[in-house]
Amino acid sequence: MMNTIPKTRIAVLVSGGGTNLQAILDAQKAGKITDGEVVLVISNNPDAYALERAKNAGVKGVVVPKKGRTREDFEKDLVAALEEHGIELIILAGFMCILSADFTNRYPERIINVHPSLIPSFCGEGFYGLRVHEAALAYGVKVTGATVHFVNEIPDGGKIILQRAVEIQENDTPEILQKRVMEQAEWHLLPEAAQLVSRSIRERKK
Ligand code: GAR
Question: DSSP character for 185?
Answer without folding.
Answer: I
